[in-house]
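If your schedule permits, I should be very grateful for your opinion on a structural question. Kindly check, if you would, that the fold set down in the tokens agrees with what the sequence suggests. Thank you for your consideration; the sequence and its tokens are set out here:
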Amino acid sequence: MTEEVLPVLWSVITEEEREAYPEQLEEFVSRYRERLVRLYARYRPQSVTARHGRRELLVCPAQ
């Protein structure tokens, strides 16, 4: 999915924003490291959720 989305995102982001992106990403990871670790543990490729496919990450209302 990244290969499909990233070119579209880069086409709408200015050069200045692209240059600032690595630093902003580092700040984001530093700020949310604990949460990212928990989320990765829960949804990593070998997780129970991943075994059922991407759809399992979506919360669907009962019908």
